[in-house]
C-alpha cells in the first residue's frame, strides 16, 4: 500500500526537460533495438492528488530534435519517409483522462498527434517520488511507457530484408521519464 499523501502534490507543474526524457525504442533489422529521444520539448501538468481524474498533462515535442546518435539515420527519420518534419514540425500529447491504477500507478489517456493524425493512447505512469531540490522547488517524478504501432500515424516506410522480415519494426515503445517542478 502506498504511503504517499498525494493531496500534498496538488498543483500546477512545469516539466523540467533538462532532467526528463521523451524517447523511443524500435527494433532494427529484426535483431537489435535502436533507442532515440527528442531533445527539444516542453510540457506542463496539473496534478490533483485528491481526485486524479481532475489531473491533466500537455506535451509538445519538436520533431526535428530527434536524436538516435547517428546523423544519417536522424536525417532519414526527419524526411518524408518517416516524420515529414517540414509539414509536421510538432508531435503533441494532450491528456483526456487520468485514473489511479493501483499503488503509485496512474493511467494517463490522451490524444497523441503525429503527422497531423490524432489517436488515443493510454500510458501507465509510475510515481517515482517527490523531493525538494537545493533551490527550494518541489519536484515530482513519473516514469511511463507505451507501445504503439507507428503505421497508425502514417509512419510507414520500411525495407524488406533478404532473409525475411523488415528493417524497422512497426511497434515502437515510447518511454517518458519526467521530473516536474511545482509552479510558485
TrEMBL record:
Protein name from the UniProt record: Polyisoprenoid-binding protein YceI
InterPro entries (alphabetical): Lipid/polyisoprenoid-bd_YceI (IPR007372), TTHA0802/YceI-like_sf (IPR036761)
Lipid/polyisoprenoid-binding YceI-like domain mapped to chain residues: 12-181
Organism encoding this protein: Kribbella italica
PANTHER family the record matches: PROTEIN YCEI (PTHR34406:SF1)
Domain of life, per lineage: Bacteria
SUPFAM superfamilies documented for this protein: YceI-like
Pfam family, one: YceI
Assigned protein family: Belongs to the UPF0312 family.
Coiled-coil regions listed in the entry: none
Amino acid at each position: 500500500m502506498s504511503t504517499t499523501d498525494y493531496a500534498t502534490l496538488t498543483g500546477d507543474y512545469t516539466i523540467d526537460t533538462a532532467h526528463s526524457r521523451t524517447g523511443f525504442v524500435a527494433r532494427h533489422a529484426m535483431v537489435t533495438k535502436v533507442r532515440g529521444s527528442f531533445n527539444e520539448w516542453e510540457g506542463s501538468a496539473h496534478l490533483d492528488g485528491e481526485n486524479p481524474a481532475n489531473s491533466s498533462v500537455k506535451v509538445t515535442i519538436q520533431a526535428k530534435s530527434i536524436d538516435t546518435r547517428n546523423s544519417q539515420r536522424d536525417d532519414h527519420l526527419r524526411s518524408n519517409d518517416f516524420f515529414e518534419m517540414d509539414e509536421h514540425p510538432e508531435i503533441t500529447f494532450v491528456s483526456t483522462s487520468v485514473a489511479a491504477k493501483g499503488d503509485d500507478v496512474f493511467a494517463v489517456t490522451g490524444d497523441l498527434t503525429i503527422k497531423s493524425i490524432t489517436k488515443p493512447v493510454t500510458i501507465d505512469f509510475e510515481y517515482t517520488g517527490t523531493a525538494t531540490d537545493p533551490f527550494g522547488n518541489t519536484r515530482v517524478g513519473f516514469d511511463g511507457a507505451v507501445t504503439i504501432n507507428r503505421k497508425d500515424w502514417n509512419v510507414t516506410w520500411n525495407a524488406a530484408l533478404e532473409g525475411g522480415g523488415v528493417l524497422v519494426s512497426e511497434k515502437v515503445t515510447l518511454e517518458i521519464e519526467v521530473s516536474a517542478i511545482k509552479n510558485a
